[in-house]
Design goal:
Shape: globular
Largest sheet: 6 strands, parallel
Number of helices: 13
Structural class: alpha/beta
Distance between the termini: 52 Å
Radius of gyration: 23 Å
Strand content: 15-25%
Strand order of the largest sheet: 2-1-3-4-5-6
Bound molecules: S-adenosyl-L-homocysteine, iron/sulfur cluster, FE3-S4 cluster
Length: about 475
């Protein structure tokens, strides 16, 4: 059964936040500024939005300038070694800031902090880190900061509970057009390579009423694109008292008034049903884009990964979806070089990519994660060889995406304008319903609205276009 943090406990923290406000003012003599940086997945971004909400309650204002900050908080990710290395690099770099400004508070939270060996490393090698808290402790941030300010000692809180849901936390969203909406937390799947079940706890779903209320608020605030978040949204509803599944939740959000698009991630193929595909086809607000990670195109490797579906089952779902959903766009995640994978087995991944024709792919080289099964498996293929396979996959996908983008030429798409382009100040950037990035000339007042854009210039990864009336 899903467990919820008692309302009284949340209120208690809100009261603490008020008293922390005074303590902070005494320490800094001004309105304190917080710099929050987030690594990892959208789930982590959504957590940071709640953490920022709590920081505002404590009287902080947000800053983008790390050198102006009175509190530096890194929300960390443990999914691959590279993600962890980046965190350590950045934390090492703030040591200098702390030296020049001793009252600066440095805090680390998120998935890495849920791992004992990481906490030990921080404790021993990064003595300037003041506060460490794990993925279940966000809502007690006022208590942690108060403890640090009054005891003036390092504070660590990374309890490893079975997983609870804390409702009623304030949320600070700093993006314009798009909003993240968590519908569930944790993961029970234990794919053999993955650290998430260890650092995020057991799978648990929010009540539909809480999700719908948050969706209504998001829509009222003017957001045009809502992404429902969970590690495996297809198993939404398990463990709740109410009888509801993900398809039903989608239908209820689709029925809300307003002009907005609904997306979701991530779907696990083992729990993806025809009912869900039919629901996406029926719901006019559901984006006709599915992100369905397949990880490997080879059945032996899928078995070793503990994914609990076969290549055939995956392709059956894809073919059903292509048949039912007009204009369907598909994206996926792939791991190259799982322990023991041979080149022949990797070729099954290439052939699956060719067969499906993904709009885009997120490709990763296997990274051993402490505590997972795969980290203990013999892994004879050298990294340099895996890097070659990886490049072969990326080249293949690039040619598929280029072909796909070329087919868009001359067609007009409904695009949500998200902001200025990263490539050119003169251009705006948005995404089509199928999640392809499109750049076009237009007035900044269009940011946050739906526009009609005709594709004029397909490039390899993105497309350029022009506004049509
Ligand atoms: N819950 C999602 C994935 C979350 S992690 C799902 O099951 O699809 C995002 C992606 O990171 C995964 O899909 C996988 O492709 C990749 N990943 C996870 N652990 C990894 C590891 N140890 N090495 C390399 N890639 C990994
Ligand atoms: Fe990791 Fe698998 Fe859970 Fe996704 S479903 S978070 S890959 S264990
Ligand atoms: Fe990373 Fe944690 Fe997300 S490990 S990918 S931030 S759930």
């Amino acid at each position: 059964m899903t467990k919820f943090v008692e309302k009284e406990k949340i209120l208690e923290q809100q009261e603490l936040a008020e008293s922390v406000k005074e303590l902070l003012f005494l320490r800094f003599g001004k309105i304190p500024l917080a710099f929050v940086h987030t690594y990892g997945c959208q789930g982590n971004v959504a957590d940071s939005e709640r953490i920022k909400g709590i920081l505002l309650q404590m009287g902080f204002q947000m800053t983008e300038e790390i050198t102006d900050a009175d509190l530096i908080l890194y929300n960390t990710c443990a999914i691959r070694e590279h993600a962890e290395d980046r965190v350590f690099g950045n934390v090492g770099a703030v040591k200098k800031l702390k030296k020049s400004k001793p009252e600066l508070i440095i805090a680390l939270c998120g998935c890495m902090m849920q791992q004992e060996h990481i906490r030990e490393k921080i404790y021993n090698s990064y003595p300037f880190v003041d506060i460490v808290f794990g993925t279940h402790a966000h809502y007690i941030l006022p208590e942690l900061i108060k403890e640090y300010l009054t005891r003036k000692k390092r504070v660590v809180s990374a309890f490893d509970i079975d997983g609870e849901i804390a409702e009623g936390l304030p949320v600070y969203r700093d993006r314009t057009a798009k909003a993240w909406l968590p519908i569930m937390y944790g993961c029970d799947n234990f794919c053999s390579y993955c650290v998430v079940p260890y650092v995020r706890g057991r799978e648990r779903s929010r009540k539909s009423e809480d999700i719908i209320n948050e969706a209504k608020q998001i829509i009222a605030e003017g957001y045009k694109d809502i992404t429902l978040l969970g590690q495996n949204v297809n198993s939404y509803g398990k463990g709740l008292e109410e009888d509801i599944n993900f398809s039903e939740l989608l239908r209820r959000i689709n029925a809300l008034d307003g002009d907005f698009t609904i997306r979701f991630m991530t779907s696990h193929p083992k729990d993806c049903t025809h009912e869900l595909i039919d629901t996406i086809a029926e719901c006019e607000k559901a984006s006709k884009h599915i992100h369905l990670p397949f990880q490997s195109g080879n059945n032996r490797i899928l078995g070793e990964m503990n994914r609990r579906y076969t290549r055939e089952k995956y392709l059956e779902l894809i073919n059903y979806a292509k048949e039912k959903i007009e204009g369907l766009s598909l994206t996926s995640d792939v791991i190259v070089g799982f322990p023991g994978e041979t080149y022949e087995e990797f070729c099954d991944t290439l052939s699956l990519v060719k067969e499906v024709g993904f709009t885009s792919l997120f490709t990763f080289i296997f990274s051993p994660r402490k505590g997972t099964k795969a980290a203990e498996m013999p892994d004879p293929v050298p990294h340099s060889e895996k890097a070659k396979w990886f490049k072969e996959l990326c080249d293949l996908q690039e040619s598929i995406a280029a072909e796909h983008n070329a087919e868009m030429k001359g067609k007009t798409f409904r695009v949500l304008c998200e902001g200025e382009s990263k490539n050119s100040e003169e251009l705006l950037a948005g995404r089509t319903d199928g999640n392809v990035i499109i750049e076009f000339k237009g007035d900044k007042s269009l940011i946050g609205t739906f526009c009609k854009v005709k594709v004029t210039e397909p490039l390899n990864w993105i497309v350029r276009g022009e506004l049509v009336k």
